[in-house]
Amino acid sequence: MLHLLRRYFGRYDQLPPGLFLLRVLLEQLLATLVVGLLAAWLGIPSKERTDAEIPRFAWHAIFLAPWPETLLLQMLPISLARVCGASRRTQMAVSTALFAMPHFALSPFTGLTAGLIGGFYFSFAYTHWRRHSLARAFWLTVAQHTLYNACVCGLVLLILRFAPA
Questions:
Q1: Is residue 153 part of a domain?
Q2: Distances in Å between the alpha carbon of 120 and those of 55, 95, 159, 163, 164?
Q3: Tally of structural domains, the chain
Q4: Which domain holds residue 108?
Q5: Which one of 43, 66, 67, 164 has the minimum C-beta count within 10 Å?
Q6: Comparing C-alpha atoms, which of 140, 145, 137, 139 is closest to residue 119?
Q7: Neighbours of 75 (CB within 10 A)
């Protein structure tokens, strides 16, 4: 199984930044959708937001959160793990766990979807680009995080707009 995952994610190694970003973003959104639908079906609780909270939440998620979260929850733990000689898998596991913790504090649903799925894909992107340069790893992960949050917020707003009252 590990061999299949390694081969699957190894396909990203030869992609240029733009194509990497697009493919990993689409895959991350699909994984979030599948896990989110399964979590909803299982009745895993989510944080309810009022209509008045949504614009502020979207602003925060798209414009404020990606760069400090990348700095504190990908760059810092992965750098420390690298200094300690940890494997890429261990670097990703540490970063994913740390990324998931504050998201689980919001709700179990958010922890599963944004925390674990997001944490995995952001740590994957960061460790991938870190082999090239620190700046590329940071800014491409921030870009991925920003685009992901914008897509999720857009989808939530669409669902709310067309959902029956």
A1: yes
A2: 26, 8, 25, 30, 34
A3: 1
A4: 17-44+53-162
A5: 164
A6: 145
A7: 20
Asked if residue 92 lies in contact with residue 120, where contact means CB atoms within 8 angstroms, the answer is yes
The secondary structure of 78-117 as a DSSP string is HHHHHHTT--HHHHHHHHHHHHHHHHHHH-HHHIIIIIII
Would you call 30 exposed, middle or buried from its count of C-beta atoms within 10 A (0-12, 13-18, 19+)?
Answer: exposed
Q: Does residue 28 have a pLDDT over 70?
A: yes
* 70 within a domain of the structure (yes/no): yes
Report the C-alpha gap between 124 and 130 in whole angstroms: 10
The rounded distance, in Å, linking the Cα atoms of 31 and 53 is 26
Helix, strand or coil, per DSSP, at residue 51: coil
Using only C-alpha atoms, the chain has a radius of gyration, in whole angstroms, of: 16
Give the pLDDT mean for 82-89.
97
Q: Is residue 1 part of a domain?
A: no
Report if residue 132 sits inside a domain: yes
Region 128-151: mean pLDDT is: 97
pLDDT of residue 132: 94
The closest of 139, 114, 117 to 129, measured between CA atoms, is 139
Confidence category of residue 165, pLDDT binned at 50, 70, 90: low
Please tell me whether the overall predicted TM-score, pTM, comes out greater than 0.85 for this model. yes
